Amino acid sequence: MKRKDLKKWLILGSIFIALIALPFVLSKTHLHLLVIIGIHAILALSLGLVVGFVGQLSLCHAGFYGIGAYISALLTFSHWPFWLALPAAGVVSGVFGLLIGLPSLKTRGIYFSITTLSFGIIMAMVLNNWISLTNGPDGLSGLVSPNPIPLFGGILISFNNPTSYYFLVGVFLLGTIFVVRRLLRSRVGRAFVAVRGNEVLAESLGVQALRYKLTAFIIAAFFAGIAGSLYAHYLRYICPRDFGFVESFDLLVMVVVGGAQTILGPIVGALFVLALPKFFGFEPVYGRVAFGIILIIVMIYMPRGIVGTLQKALLSSRRSDGHP
Amino acid sequence: MESSIFFQQVINGLVIGSIYAMVALGLTLIFGILHIGNFAHGQLYMLGAFATYWLVTLWGWNIWSSMLVAMGSMALLGIVLERVVFRPVYSAPHINGLIVALGLFIALENIALILWGGEERTLPSPYATKVITLLSISLTLQRLLVFIISILLIFLLYLFIQRTKMGKAIRAVAQDPEVSRLMGIPIHRISATVFAVSSALAAAAGALVGPIFCVFPAMGVTPILKAFVVIVLGGMGSIPGAIFGGFILGIAESLGAGYLSSEYKDAFAFAALILVLMVKPSGLFGKE
């Protein structure tokens, strides 16, 4: 038992050290990709809460992401510091999560998916057409980088380069993982799984399904808003195209292909979806074709997603070794 | 004069609505059998339009024979896709089917982009420039033909579903796949047939609008999204729901664009859907 724990911590520790060392060995383009993957990992992880753990196939996550990005951009334009605009973006997205979740979650199955898809399309359309506020399809440019943090001895950490942003996103990703883990191990998390398994049965045991579904939906929207703020002040340019329904589809793909119902799955999914086309990198169109086909192959041969299937394989191989 | 604008918009709405109805009908049939939200269905509409376009422009075929060949080849493609892509995920959770459909959606659109580029082409049609005026309402002959032919095709499909043995089997599988299988209905043949018929219908819709709108790789996106709205409004799996839903949506959009705002024209469908589902979570014609 003790030895197994030691092994686990050794593995986690070496991964952690590798992740810290990574920005000092990678090229700028790769580091940039990693920052984008990190932001999408936060998005996918939060969507995974809704899709994987309460079993609701939401198709408007990119809308919350967009709201977060625009709120944060507009607040910093009226001279809010980034460190206040970021939580504000999360809270506003969370409020939209409540407003959209409440009517949507009364529908079920594909009805829920198409309702959220509609909300997502309308959100993107508003960003596109409310020109006085959002500058329409041209988007908002000239966003500020996060304000530097003063460290002991008058040293400043500034966030205008991929290296420091990598660590910033990393901290938020770890925070998201921590919150999601804690949540799933709490009473609320067990209620989530009960609702996913059998809503009627859960209700009969006194679990108010709608309340828990809504809780998951709002928390997911909150994290999407945070991710939006991180994205906006990293690229320092946002436009409605980044937050349309195609983005929502991609996020869903990350969750399911990585492995819904696991925490690691959506993170692996984000890595897979964003890094894969780069391997076919000659031209984005070819990357998309390969991506579509690989998606089909993964779903046919790994129906639980990459992480889910590997976990199962690992479990059964351990069993056959005689170590339950 | 007000009323003539109104009728003009209604006529336009009927034309668009017939396209929505044709795409939605295939989508609802597939959903009824497989319970998969087939996002890739719009790409068969796009490929059908391209097939017709190339037969007309490269080989100089007549537009009707081109359309028939396009329908036939898309029916074949539909059968292949059902066999190769969808059948392996039948027993998996429905979400896997949705992801597979999304993968197909992405792959087919980008294959079209690689093959033919992103530019918008117009399918040449001898009927596109002939204008008919009737009681101060004017429309091109092409639009009139879109309406007539789609009504005809929808009617034929309706007869097929209601009057033939195969149609009866399709309805049985939609109602209860387990019992149907026990009764000796070949489920795989039924789903292949449904894919073939649905794909042919989508191809016809694409070929018909080619001369009015444009032919380009992303042309299937808006119709498939609207078709989803239609079948949800009409109740998933409901055939009359898809037909009437398509026409109602077409007219509502056309009137909305004329009287309210053309910027948000595409938002009406989605807003209407949300409003309806808030009142009746199972759609207008859906059973609870």
Question: What features would you describe in this structure?
Answer:
The complex is a heterodimer of chains A (324) and B (288). Chain A has 324 residues and is an all-alpha fold. Chain A has a domain at 30-244. Helices cover 77% and strands 2% of the residues of chain A. In chain A, the strands form two sheets. In chain A, strands 1-4 form a two-stranded antiparallel ribbon. In chain A, helix 8 (187-197) packs across helix 10, helix 12 crosses helix 13 and helix 12 (264-279) packs across helix 14. The radius of gyration of chain A is 20 Å and the shape is globular. Chain A starts with a helix and ends with a helix. By secondary structure, chain B is mainly alpha-helical. Chain B has a domain at 17-217. Chain B contains eleven helices and two strands; from the N terminus they run H-H-H-H-E-E-H-H-H-H-H-H-H. Chain B has a two-stranded antiparallel ribbon. In chain B, strand 1 and strand 2 form a beta hairpin. In chain B, helix 3 (63-86) runs antiparallel to helix 8. Chain B starts with a helix and ends in a 9-residue tail after the last helix. The relative contact order of chain B is 0.21. The mean pLDDT of chain B is 87. The chains are: A mainly alpha (324), B mainly alpha (288). Chains A and B meet through helix 5, helix 11 and helix 13 of A and helix 4, helix 9 and helix 11 of B.
